[in-house]
Amino acid sequence: MKQQSGLAPFVITKLPLIFLGIPGKKCGVIILTAEELSNCRDIATMQLCANKLDKKDFFGKSDPFLVFYRSNEDGTFTICHKTEVIKNTLNPVWQSFTIPVRALCNGDYDRTVKVDVYDWDRDGSHDFIGEFTTSYRELSRGQNQFNVYEVRHNMEMACYFIPPSSYKDLPTSLHYMSPYQMNAYAMALKAVGEIIQDYDSDKLFPAYGFGAKLPPDGKISHAFPLNGDNDNPNCVGIEGVLETYFQSLRAVQLYGPTNFAPVINKVANCAAEITDGSQYFVLLMITDGVISDMVQTKEAVVNAASLPLSIIIVGVGPAEFDAMEELDGDEVRVSSRGRLAERDIVQFVPFRDYIDRSGNQVLSMARLAKDVLAEIPDQLLSFMKSRGIEPRPALSSSPLPQLHRHI
């Protein structure tokens, strides 16, 4: 964990605003509170579990989730993180998560952090189970072990603080490199990559990572070539991409937040250079479901929708993928700052839906291929039609448009 030696001062501003409806009559007051953000750039990764929760559901156990609150200088609390709901258990283990320390405590390591435990109810009337308070400094002491907190009703809460440098080495990490089997990212990359690589003529794939500290100086990047070569980020075939991915895991330190926009913009810039229909670009993104820059990502998608580009997002792991569904745009076209995307260019598929429990891997990959490629033809045609680009004559010696894959 990186320690900050100096932090920006905390400035609290309160501004009362009076609502006016009927002339001459006050309709209430809203108080706007603002606090200057510190310059702390630390990232905290932690995992929590609980023991002996109260049974709140009449026909079951409990459906617990956690709510983290940052304390404010005026004594109030602001929600800064919610965990997923774990259904029907009194001993839940929540997924590890990453949060900027600035969001957790504004860089003040000793500021109070409050954690509430609730039992989820469908109608939104969640039952309060208990709470405990801590601080980032106390949480970080659990780097080599874990912190135990007592919550009312004899419940115990254990919090494991995970240094970002070792997160990929945990068996629970989707990036964990087991000697016995490929991790979730590698499985998805191999399965989807082998499907789409046949549509590329030279089998050279630029491959990028997003969210890591890079050697030798630890500079943070959200769009870095996996092979470390900015001038030539290409990998030979999907096997080359996989090999480079494993090498990169050993060389870089995974680091949040998870920003999509830089990678999308990088590929969009390449697509913007060739809009005559001779080339079409496909960006494959593999993610665990977290998007830290959703506003910027939506803007990047809207901007890219006018270019010869399609985006395939494959979600790995057990997380909820609501943000990915929103980007997919099948129901509601993606918009940003009042602008609708010119075309629907995003296709999202959750990889877990294609793991065949019967062991028939061929059937799983066939279904995956169908859904991954389902929208690409229409997306390509919609771009060509929007630019008035006619198909070349069947007997022409000119090469067909080449699909470029970015991983």
Automatic annotation (TrEMBL):
UniProt key word Calcium: yes
GO cellular component: plasma membrane
Cited CDD domains: C2B_Copine (cd04047)
InterPro entries per record: C2_dom, C2_domain_sf, C2B_Copine, Copine, Copine_C, vWFA_dom_sf
GO MF annotations, alphabetized: calcium-dependent phospholipid binding; metal ion binding
C2 domain ranges (all copies): 26-149
Matches recorded under SMART domains: C2
Entry keywords, A to Z: Calcium, Metal-binding, Repeat
GO BP annotations listed: cellular response to calcium ion
Gene3D superfamilies membership: C2 domain
One Pfam family in the UniProt entry: C2
Family classification: Belongs to the copine family.
Protein name: C2 domain-containing protein
Organism: Astatotilapia calliptera (Eastern happy)
